[in-house]
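Troubleshooting: if your tokenizer reports a length mismatch, compare against these two reference records.
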Amino acid sequence: MGRLYSVLFAAAYLSVVSTTTISDIQGTRFLSPLAGQSVQNVTGVVTAKIYEGSSGFYLLGEKPEDIRVSNGLQVFTTSTSTLGQVTVGDLISLDGRVQEFRSSSSPNNLFATEIASPTNIVVRSSNNTFPIVILGKDRSPPTQELSALDVGPDGFLSNPNNVSRIDTVNDELRPDRYGMDFWESLEGQIVTIPKPIATNFENQFGEFWVYGDWHVTGKNSRGGISITSGPDGIPDANPETVIIGSPLDGTKNPTTAVGVALTDITGPVVYQFGFFYVLPLTAPQVISRPSSNIPPTTISSNGNDPCVVTFGDYNVENMAPTSAHIPTVASHITDLMKTPDLLFLQEIQDNSGETNDGTVGADVTLKTLIDAIESVSGVRYNFTQINPVDGQDGGVPGGNIRTAFLYRPERLQLIPGTPVGGSLDAIEVRKDTKKLALSLNPGRIDPTNPAWASTRKPLVAGWQTRNKKEFYTINVHLSSKGGSSSTQGDARPPVNLPIDARSQQVAIVADFVASVLDRDSKAKLIVAGDFNEYSQTRSVFAPLAKLLTEFDEVVDIPRVERYSYVFDQNSEQLDHAFASPGIEKHKNKAAFEHIHVNSWSPSFDDRISDHDPSVGKFFVCG
């Protein structure tokens, strides 16, 4: 297939520039001041060749005084005869056309500056050496912001997003402050990443994220980089990390995981596929891997104390009756989560799994999981859930995923005397009773509201302990992040879809929470599940944060350890648990822990879910 690209500036006439330097071509902005022009006598040392795919080579010119200006550049060619004319270490001159390349299928990516259609290549000398930028010594990346265009109270997570574009503004680079500017100022240069540490698993192309031996923020105990907030309260975008791409010599990158230490990586800085990369000259080697032992929770159910309730939350990723990972999930619930009194589960499929046959019931799925738990723990759970309308709650076609509760009947029961809600029945707080009571148990929050189109409706349940103390739970699984743009893309702030839907969904949940607390300000209430959003996206969580407090805050978990998911360079928290003031009041008797059984897997294939479970406890008496 031919190489598809769009040229930023179409010109009826191509001006000819004599003796142009690489620094002249790169300039001090994202876009070249010479884009669309023909240039002559561009001189530099060949620093690397792209052997796999044969798409060109890299040149290094004289070092400029201005750190905003790169003196490296890719020369794009698919001509084997042209590639055969040059060798790494050759000092050459050439003519060509300056081009800003971006795939026509990726309009939200940045342009990459390059010389295309090289001609008149002259080798002036060979076996030349060239300087390599040692990151962390010669240059160090900034550690919080990606772009000056990420305006808004939540920085790169602000909403509205996609309000400006880098290629339109094309501002002067500020590599001392903004991460994208920093990597752009090194475009085409050869850099070395000393002592790299992987922050994620490799993707399907063998690419992975790292940071090196330089100052970083958000480093967690595993060696990953967590999304946190900076001293100014703006979310930290972790711009000090970079992707390692396919080695230029055709060797294969190793498998990685969070915290894997590697040998030094040397290669050119490039922009491709929506991110800044370093393409290693040859594949790095693994020096060490973290321990594969996952510590279990220190929180366990105490059958002798009815005033303390333990709970767990787990997105079990498309679980059907025939799912191969059911025994592993059962062992996680038993050995790592210590069979809590109550479990919030997400992504429970119907009894026929992904077969799209109209089935909506999930009793077989849940009983299969319950049987598996009992076989390894001796604990027998009951379940409660509400079937969705076929095909209306999103997820994999035919799966009808939903939220569900498992509970230990010797510890808890649903508050009796209230009917079970149906798929389209809206639960409400009753106004005709002397104390707090629900119209349905369990029930769904406003299930016909358009905000819940093609996504899961929150499941509400009221519970009673052995000593007749009551509490309430809301199990959520909000709309997923499909369709978002790269965090290092052209659109600023980055596109975060569907953030407006998630904002509406949180607001609807918050309205229901408010109705509970208006009826009883001391009510014990937990909202937990997969929110598909970071807590640092404060605009989304604002309505709920006015009413409830995250358990991480209640028990003061270190901010860098608040994560349940790894994606791109980040350890991030998509799964949350919120406590009402009635629970927070007794925070000295509360606990909460994240169990990183999947984020800390030794390899991507060893994970059984893309989410980590969590476990907590709270005091229900008083």
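Reference record two:
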Amino acid sequence: MSQSWLQRKRKAELIDLAQKARLPDADGLLKDDLVEMLVNHLNSNETSFAKHPDFRDYYGRNGSPIKRERVSPSAPPTVIKSTRRRTLIKEPSEERMPEPSSLVARTPVERAPVDRTPVERTPVERTPVSRTPRAVPRRVSEVIAQVDIPASPAQLAEVADQSFQVVKSKATELWDRTRIDELKEFIRENASSVATIQTIILLIEAVGLQWNTLDTTAMFATPPALSSYSDSPHVMGPNGWALLTAGWWAPATLWSLTSWVLPLVFSYFFNLTLRTNTSRKSSDNQYPADPLIFNITRAILAYSAYRETVNTALVPGAWGPFSESSVARVGNHVPGGYYGLQISSLVGILVSLYDAALKK
């Protein structure tokens, strides 16, 4: 335990030991050189540093030698005797057999005969015993599945919602097949214009005029199946032969001239939409015939032709080549009469102004 004890020390501890051993210049040495110098110095000065407490472990011993005990030769050796196990065999002893005893003669005893008559046995009726079958254990889930348990409100609501969704999808599919939405959008797109509104007004006037001008006549007899639903013996309808007479053509021609032919000619030539002052000039802002001029012309012509039909006491005068009866028939048979013609013209004027304001 010399050099290895020093090798386990740190360099700072070695420097401290070197200072205690009075070694000069120990700080500038490496650890291995310092260990070698300490070993040489401590070995050469063992008498001086052996009793020093810091170097006691360096000069110490790990332990004393182990003493082993020796066996003295005078002791006699012990001898181990092995004893064998003896088995004793016992000889069989002679046993005497018992002597046979003398037999005693016995006389047979006579027995009375036994009357063995067959005894009739009544059959015993056995009633079948009914055994109840043993209950077989079953799972709780199987038993619950067989029990008719009423559904909860949440399940009923879910089933109702699913049924409603199925019906809704079927109804939507049928509705899409009818293409009513497409037809609706088509009508809406084409009806949202001044020309469509003006056309509808003219159709109402024409249908009302023809309905009131054509006289109704009997077309054919009422069928027996429909006689209980009708008091008339004949089915009435418009008189088609009136279309070949002047009584129909004269009012129809007069209404056509004053309601759409002459107004259309004036609005075509006096079209104010051709010269717009807007910065955006496009074909959407222009019409072949000015709707405002068209309705103003209609109002003026209706005033000049049918103003006297308001007073039923007076006979209206003729208008150009048309007779008084033709003027009176148009003024009285058009829906609303003279005021109906003026109201339709006023509606056309307002729609034309509104459309022009939207396009500015």
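Descriptive notes for reference record two:
- Residues 61-83, 87-96, 98-110 have pLDDT under 50 and may be disordered.
- The radius of gyration is 72 Å.
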